[in-house]
Amino acid sequence: MNIKIVVATHKPYKMPKDSIYLPLHVGREGKRSIGFEGDNTGENISAKNYNYCELTGLYWAWKNLKDADVIGLVHYRRHFMSLENKQGNKWQRILGGEEIERLMEEYDIIVPVKRNYFIESNESQYIHAHPKEDWEKMLVLVREQSPEYSLNLDIMRKSTKGHKFNMCIMKREALDSYCSWLFSILEKIEESQLEKNRILGHISERMFDVWLYANANKYKFKEVPIKFMEQQNWFVKGMNFLWRKFV
To answer: For residues 168 and 202, what is the distance between their CA atoms, to the nearest angstrom?
Structure first.
């Protein structure tokens, strides 16, 4: 099984040792090389990274890793953790190729364990931080293009939980289905966007669960824990979260 996991990065950084991981300089177009493969080769949307965020890496992998049976996207500071190996530090417990292959014998998709915002729904959490108009455009487009997803769309909007960060590992067929659907809608949102600053990357995080649950009978998925590879200031993150909600 040919597995390739793109590690989206914009700067030099420590990378997993397993050969399945491919460091990718996202937003490479017009920038200096940082010593990694750039997302501006082949068929790409590298120049739109300011708006699509790490999705320029997913798009590049989808269009250019033709020989891969399984394709994934992780972040340079955020990785899936092994379910089998509990020893060592975070870098030593990153999900490896042999374990992914075993998981793919039973599942089609690997996703992060859901994050729960508790006092915020997916919709309210997005609207408190970003222009509401782009969100409403997404809702209209999903209903128009995929009316059979409408129930899952409403469930996602009201839920406080979600698979975040645009992180995933998928068999080729599932990836083709997801990316074809996702990017066709994002392109239309982009045409009428008010603010072109990371918005499509944030919207897609919420859209992912709409597609995932709508296709749950076709593609079986497994939740796997993820770890942030650096220290996080949870007090500051929590205060920012509350500020957006109440102020």
So the answer is: 15
